[in-house]
Design brief:
four-stranded mixed sheet; 10 helices; about 5% strand; GST_Omega-like_C; Glutathione-S-Trfase_C_sf; Glutathione S-transferase omega-like 2; Glutathione_S-Trfase_N; glutathione transferase activity
Length: about 325
């Protein structure tokens, strides 16, 4: 599959002209519903998930796919950790351990998937992508919505996890509230610091980031998890950022006022607790995580040198 279409701007440039990083909304925002009139309905082996192990947003979807037992229902492809000028590339596990080629569309680059869904697409080729093999299009490329889809849409196919929810109705309002500020100040906050191209832009975001981490530390000093002492999507959404914080963001993104290991004991306890849950550790590939950031972001790390530190030991 080939295409001559190109993204808008340099794929490896992230900040606007004023030095601020502003994440653009995802373009494909459909859902999968049991409604018989729905365009996308739950079916076994109809959908395919494209991810990068290094990406925290994609990591969320891999975790929920695993925890809900959807490995045999929804296929998986994993791109190479290196984000190049042509975007994410598919390679074999022999070339890069941990990768899974695209056996659905036989694409060489993720961009081909976007153009297959929309030949006039203009934008970034981001992961995750949830693909519909039947209609040959992208269902959704917004991680927060994909994890909600995985949370309940396929329950009838996996009886052993049916009813297991990471978004319980009685906690939904509280989950939404915490997701909002965690996303703005922490999940996206590290990027607003790291991708800033002016001192003013960087300084304006680093303070709120650590204030939010301080707030999380207080919550976890009193509770096992973020919401209602129940393991929810709020924990999953934050956790993928936290395990990247010390080995990546602290150094590469200059978010270095504090570390998780030495300054946030309750966050560290919580991170280790989640890591030990069944199937979670299998979704963590620290080589992909570190290499993706340090080798891809040449504007921040010109020589592509990857530090040896993997962050605090999560097995303790």
């Amino acid at each position: 599959m080939t295409t001559t279409a190109k993204p808008s701007g340099n794929i490896l440039e992230f900040a606007d002209k004023d030095g601020e990083f502003r994440r653009k909304p995802s373009d494909f925002r459909n859902t999968i519903s049991k409604d018989p009139d729905a365009i996308f309905t739950p079916e076994k082996d109809r959908y395919h998930l494209y991810i990068a192990w290094g990406c925290p947003w994609a990591h969320r979807t891999a975790i929920v796919r695993a925890l809900k037992g959807l490995e045999g229902i929804i296929g998986l492809s994993v791109v190479d950790y290196l984000l190049g000028e042509k975007g994410w590339r598919f390679v074999t596990a022999e070339e890069t351990p941990g990768c899974i080629p695209d056996t659905v569309n036989n694409a060489q680059y993720l961009s081909e998937i976007y153009f297959k869904a929309n030949p006039d697409y203009v934008g970034r080729y981001t992961v995750p992508v949830l693909w519909d093999k039947k209609l040959q299009t992208i269902v959704n490329n917004e991680s927060s919505e994909i994890i909600r889809i995985f949370n309940e849409a396929f329950d009838d196919f996996v009886p052993e996890t049916k009813g297991k929810t990471f978004y319980p109705k009685h906690l939904a309002n509280e989950i939404d509230k915490i997701n909002e500020w965690v996303y703005d100040k922490i999940n996206n906050g590290v990027y607003k610091c790291g991708f800033a191209t002016t001192q003013e832009a960087y300084t304006s975001h680093v303070g709120p980031l650590f204030k939010a981490l301080d707030d999380v530390e207080v919550i976890l000093s009193k509770n096992e998890f973020l919401v209602g002492n129940t393991f929810t999507e709020a924990d999953i959404r934050l956790w993928t950022t936290i395990i990247r914080f010390d080995p990546v963001y602290h150094t590469l993104f200059k978010t270095n006022l504090k570390t998780i290991k030495y300054n946030y004991p309750n966050i560290l306890r919580w991170a280790r607790q989640i890591y030990k849950l069944p199937k979670i550790a299998d979704t963590v590939d620290m080589n992909h995580i570190k290499s993706s950031y340090y080798k891809s972001m040449k504007n921040l790390n010109p020589h592509g040198i990857v530090p040896v530190y993997d962050g605090p030991d999560l097995n303790l």
